[in-house]
Amino acid sequence: MVREKQKFALWLTPETKRKIEDHYRGDNCKSQSEFIEKAVKFYCGYLDAEGADDYLPRVLAGVLSGKLGTLGDRVGRLLFKLAVDDAVMANLVAAASDVDLDTLRRVRARCVREVKETNGQISFEDALKFQKGLA
């Protein structure tokens, strides 16, 4: 739908004019007028919202919801992959080791404490040193 446009005088500070010149192409606008029109419509939407304080949070909530949903899906897939690899390694190590259940329970309890204390920042080197009695 093509709308008729009207020409009128517009007075801007040099700083504002410079901002328009610097940003209109980055917003994929064909002209500075298009950029100004988009900016005015956005600001009017902000003012027309039930409360101006509610407008931006709704906009952000919509954007963040989509981004976080995508991120959540990706993290979920990666965690599934890690869990599968962890299960494979656990089964291979269990098949190759001669560890009794009491030792396994003590090691698990120690690992839970270490993970809590270090927020999961445990290196293989630290575990090796402990297991070899070097720590």
Task: Report on the architecture of this protein.
It is a single chain. The protein is mainly α and about 140 residues long. It has 3 domains: about 10-50; about 50-85; about 100-135. The chain is about 75% helix and about 0% strand. The chain contains 5 helices and no strands. Helix 2 (about 30-50) crosses helix 3 (about 50-95). The model has no long low-confidence stretch (mean pLDDT about 85).
Concise summary:
The chain is mostly helical. Helix content is 73%, strand content 0%.
Number of strands: 0
Q: Work out the radius of gyration.
A: 30 Å
Low-pLDDT parts are none
Oligomeric organization of the protein chains: single chain
Count of runs of 4 or more consecutive helical residues: 5
First and last CA, distance = 75 Å
Number of domains: 3
Descriptive keywords:
73% helix; single chain; 135 residues; 3 domains
Topology of helices and strands:
Blueprint: H1 14-23, H2 32-48, H3 52-96, H4 101-118, H5 124-131
Helix pairs in contact: 2-3
